Amino acid sequence: MHRDAARLVRERIADNHPAAVKTALRLKASELIHDGTSPEIVAEALDRWSVKSGVGPGILPSLVSDVLKDRSGSGARAVGAATTKANGWLEIANAAALTHDDQKAIGQ
After folding, report:
1. What is d(CA 37, CA 61) in angstroms, rounded to the nearest whole number?
2. Which of 3, 55, 2 is nearest to 31 (CA)?
3. Which residues contact 4 (CB under 8 A, 6 or more apart)?
4. What confidence tens digit (pLDDT) does each residue in 7-66 have?
5. DSSP letter string over 2-46?
6. Burial, 26: exposed, middle or buried (Cβ in 10 Å; 0-12, 13-18, 19+)?
7. pLDDT of 57-106, one tens digit each?
8. How far apart are CA 29 and CA 6, in angstroms?
């Protein structure tokens, strides 16, 4: 187990969590650090884990990915087909509204 992983869990996770959960978090954190994730990123992921309810230690790698996305600015959600379609209709509606306003402005 990586020394930083044990320290991070000790510093970031409240004592009232079951020992088995803290052990699992230490193991996950150790794997992540061993694979090249900086302890700073793992620390932020542990902070996020500690405020989420209904999730287990296994989510830690996903939280690391979220931290990395947020830090790189690529955390923006992809635009799906429904959003693209809605945006298209909005553009049509806005264009029609402008046309209507322009007609009113010139007295037609």
Report:
1. 10
2. 2
3. 29, 33, 39, 42
4. 999 999 999 999 999 999 999 999 999 999 999 999 999 999 999 999 999 999 999 999
5. -HHHHHHHHHHS-TTS-HHHHHHHHHHHHHHHHTT--HHHHHHHH
6. buried
7. 999 999 999 999 998 875 455 556 777 777 777 778 777 776 655 566 65
8. 8
Alpha-carbon distance 40 to 95, whole Å?
A: 48
CB 83 within 8 A of CB 98: no
List all residues 6 or more positions away from 19 whose beta carbon is below 8 Å from its beta carbon: none
SS3 helix, strand, coil % of the chain, rounded to 5? 75, 0, 25
